[in-house]
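Researcher:
Attend to token order:
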Amino acid sequence: MTTHLSNIFSSEELEYLTQSQTVMDAKSKLNNSNVVYFTIPVTETIRNSIFGQFGLDLSNVSEIPMRWIKGDTLPHIDVGTNKFENTYLAYLNDSNGEFIIDNASYPISANTGFVFNEGLRHMTQNTGSEPRLLLGPMNEFALQVGTYTPLLYYNNYNDAINQVNSIGSASGFTIGADIYYGNIGQIQNTLWRIASFHDNTGYSYVNNSSVPTGVYSNGTDLYPLVSNAYQFNLYPSAPCFLEGTKVLTLIYGKEEYVPIETLQKGDLVKTRRDGYKKVELIGKGDIQNPGNGKRIENRLYKCSPESYPDLTEDLYITGCHSILVGDITDKEREETMNHLGKIYITDNKYRLMACIDERAEPWNSEGLYNIWHIALENDDEKMNYGIYVNGGLLVETCSINILKNHSNLIIQ
């Protein structure tokens, strides 16, 4: 249900709400943002007008939330830090465009307001670039509500950490409800990782034990993960090799290890169980490696011949890249479940992620590095293989589906 109100405030009250120094200072900040949130002290006459029009008793409230905003707002459902019954808002200046809610469209006019139930999806359209001023949106306790864009999507980890170049956002906590990444026909297979999140105090959690690990598919509700989180920054991820990694191939009838970056589509790569398979896809990207020893997924790990006898030289892989092993310990099984949500098998071998395998050491050479991965021919695009690198260590390839649709790597 939606209630449309008019002539909410007197001319003196409108002058205070639109021309006070606090309001003007907030408007000046729109140069660097499309929305500015602020509060203003509530006067006794404004308190009485709100009670008379909205039916809200704000006798114990000293400040009310306001905002400047420019541009259209996408369809969304208001959320807040606590449960609430209704959203209350008032437009304080005239604007182009329409406010749309509950299949009805209203002009955006000064001194008009709306009351509507929590859970109603609403939006604005055709508003142009002129700023509009709102009292609220707030709940019955005069606490700010609105779209907090709980999920922000990025092409890669670095963008997600720095919150730049977002490829989309969501108005709820369910992954994939508002955006699809990659091939729409494969959306159910999209996997996302959490780079960081923010809580309701405004604190940002980045690369520490509080950040939930693992991969999350479309349809997953992230709200239960952290009770007070209001925004998750998500990115797609795929395991990769550092440039220079040597892959066992068949060239003119002879087995030979060649640098992964020199492979081309159609080259034959030796697999553990299926002989030689043609390269179908080759992906290239980069990774910003930290200069510390944290065991996180999004960094490079060093695998040395001393710890892996099958190697003849050092191997560098990302933390989410798996070595294929015959067995895993209870601890490794538990950590794999925490990271991936299940235990995966490739070519009858367990996938053991480098960030979990204690034999792999975090490589603390800070910098931006090129990384590569390959997918081999397979009738089932979701399947991968075990291959040999740097002298004979058995590791996983990428599947065609992941590399093509969900890896954020550039296909060569």
Remarks:
- The domain at 241-411 is CATH 2.170.16.10 (Endonuclease - Pi-scei; Chain A, domain 1).
- Residues 180-189 have pLDDT under 50 and may be disordered.
